[in-house]
Every structure is written in C-alpha cells, then in structure tokens.
Sequence to fold (118 residues):
Amino acid sequence: VQLQASGGGLVQAGGSLRLSCVASGSIFGINAMDLDWYRQAPGKQRESVAAITSGGSTNYEESVKGRFTISRDNAKKTVYLQMNSLKPEDTAVYYCYARNIATRKTYWGQGTQVTVSS
Fold:
C-alpha cells in the first residue's frame, strides 16, 4: 500500500488548508484501515493530531480540537484533514498513516509541508 499526501502549503494565521491522502496498491482499499494524520515540527517528535477508525470514530489531539476535522471516503480511498483557524504553531510536516486492523501492517505517506505565517 502506498500513501500519497497532498494539500500542504503556506497560509497566513487564521487561514485554512485541506490535506488529502490517497491510498493505492491495495485491492481491498482502505475500508479495513484505521487512519491517522501525524505531524512533525522541527526539533520535535512526530505526534498524532487526528485519527479515524475503520468504523468512523474520530479522535483529536487537544490543541487541534474544534479546528481540525478528519474524514474519510472509502470509495475514493482517501483520508482528509480539514484545518481551519490555523496557527503558527501548526507549522510542521504532516504525514498520513494507515494501519490494517486485520493484519496490523502499518503504512506511512511521504509528508506534506504546512507553514503558517503570523
């Protein structure tokens, strides 16, 4: 399974971006996968910011609650991260992550840079 993330860019504080991550290489798609968005800022550890289970339950890191929304479209094999009211501290490389709930195999996307200017 390959994950291709896109949608990052440079935005002013208070702005919005929508990240997308498309999965390919699996005939079963993403239906049986839990999906996450992680981010890694310079000098910091990678952290999970949003997660969505195969059943559609979501969970968010405290600092993004109310601003970020994770969603999935299984037919399009895509997971999204809608990011609103962006802050400079949201600046990071964002990675999509998938975990097959049956096989426990995990996959990472290549990352997309998000830069929020003040």
In short: The chain has a mean pLDDT of 96.
